[in-house]
Write a structure and sequence with these properties.
By secondary structure, this protein is an all-beta fold. Helices cover 0% and strands 69% of the residues. A 5-stranded mixed beta barrel has the order 1-3-4-6-5. It is globular.
Length: 104
């Protein structure tokens, strides 16, 4: 029987420098990753891009977030994490890609 695994691997360009927050024992870097593909309709082809929300957690002192600069092309591997919240505009949800590793 097949098992379902919550995982992904994607290559793209960082949309802007990562926002890094440090806590007592760990740090998190949040950034957007632009991913794209070529879409062909008839004889016309165009590049279609989307920005994905990514977060990467690291124990303090164990890894660097130096690669996470705007325009840098990286490959990210990890898992999907659903987020839900409410505000004055109602209930919201989104899927966040949690990076367990990233590299050039």
């Amino acid at each position: 029987m097949k098992t379902i695994e919550n995982s992904f691997a994607v290559t793209g360009f960082i949309g802007k420098d990562a926002e890094i927050r440090q806590f007592t024992s760990a740090s998190v870097a949040k950034f957007s990753l632009a991913v794209g593909r070529i879409e062909t309709v008839g004889k016309e082809s165009k590049r279609v891009s989307a920005f994905m929300a990514v977060e990467a957690w690291r124990k303090n002192g164990s890894a660097s977030f130096e690669l996470l600069k705007k325009g840098q092309m990286i490959t990210v591997r990890g898992y999907f994490k659903p987020e839900e919240w409410s505000d004055d505009k109602g209930k919201h949800n989104r899927m966040v890609m949690v990076a367990t590793e990233f590299f050039e």
